[in-house]
Design brief:
Shape: globular
Helix content: 55-70%
Strand order of the largest sheet: 4-3-2-1-5
Length: about 550
Amino acid sequence: MPRGRKGSPQESVDSILLAISRREDIDPDTMSHYLDRLDEEWAEGAREKVLHLLRSNDALAQAAALRILSELATDFDLEGLEDFVTDPTVSDLAKLSLSPILKELGSELADDGIIEYLNDPAGAIRQMQMRLLELVGQNEMGVETILEDVVSMPVERRFAFINWLGNSNDPRAANLLVPLLENQTGKVVMAVIDALEQLGPIAINQTIPALNYVIATSSNRQLKQQARTVLGRLTMQSMLGSEDAAMMEARQQQYPPYQARVSSIDGSGTQLIMLSWRRPDGLIKGVNVLYQDQKGIKDCYGLDEMDAEQWDNLVEDLDEQGFSSFTVSFEYARAVIMEARALNKRTRTKLPIAYSIWRPLTEAGLRDKKALVNLPATCLEPLELNSETIALARRANDLYRLKEFASWLYEPIERIEPFISRYWTAQNVFSSSTNGRRKSKLKVQEERSLLEELVSSALDELIDDKWRATYATRLLRQAALLQQVGQAESVPVLRATAALLAPDSHVALHEQVFPNTLLHVSIEQGPLRLMVESLRSGSLSSFPVEFFQQD
């Protein structure tokens, strides 16, 4: 879509294109200013000048042109871009580089459609593949970008790409192959192991640790056997002592920690873990891991070449999005990640491909059981269930005064929805039958009685042993976090509440403050909660609008 205007910049299109093509230190505000100016002149010649840059043999100019096109090109430009692809005088590499933009615009020429318009298809694809290897040799972000596309390929194309990597005779190919050992089907992993053997000793510094990891963690006997066989052959092909050198180099390729942050656990059991490291050039490399306590690592994305101010801005942005976080020790943050990683394995939930790329950094030095045992506790023990604990748990309603519990409502929402509907439908009835601005004491009492009746029914119908175990564990994990960040005053209440909530507790649910408070809040805040869920799903069709209707 065309960009919004911010004043009338006076720079010429030519000077802007020259600056973008030659400078790598353009700040975001200036770049936005430049793009606004190009957008103003887009149909009056700016687009043609950008395409002229793409025709050049200058890599920086081509990269600038692609950056501008990805920002400014719209459906109105599609015909011109397709004409560019079909022009026999345009270089093959320039045509191929347009593929992502054409795909975004829905062109039939995207991907395979471009091939028939190439002057030398085989040579062009080889050039593009070599550019890919240049990209993955720079940092994890390049690997992440490429592998996101690779894992979405049809299986046959994925096999062909893996085979090409194995025959590339380029050690950088291992950067793409190694992450595919962790989250693909058995047949794909077999192909990756074969490709790593094809690369031979040139990539042994990555291959040996990766194959050792497969042997140590895989439950597939056939894969473990193939990994052992290939590892043996690679070791024999290599110089004496190369395995020790490879393992040592793998350990040395670490960065000093910069900062670790962890968000509190929200009402759905989701938590964000942020790890960052200081690069040799002083900039920051980082990774964000999203952990959901029923599945494990749910999402992951990396960051690189950030300065301290950009990192702080990222933390502030996430805080505004509801992921407020605490600074914690690196050991605690990594302990939470390892807990999530173990849950992926238990639940057989596939890891995001990005996590496989960043695993060497996030799990460095944690392969042996002794290192794992020495990590801080991520979940505290409940208190012994006695009269003192029961008395302490009566203060559980105080937890809802903490911002860390603001989102703690009943999950899953669809199970409590009928109770919310009954309460708010009755609210409309009470309001329509009330004369004057103030409700009578009788009406207020009727509302309270209805709410208590609904909460009592919900306690019996909605809370089972599985739910109790899930929320008791969340309370204990939240307690461990608050203890880590120096907010220990609420920890005894959390541990006491978890002791009562545990499935083997003899204290009746109706006598426990925490589940009663949680259901009260969930039912009373039901309409807002349902609206948020409906907006999140992109549809308001299921939202009971009559909650807000007044007669």
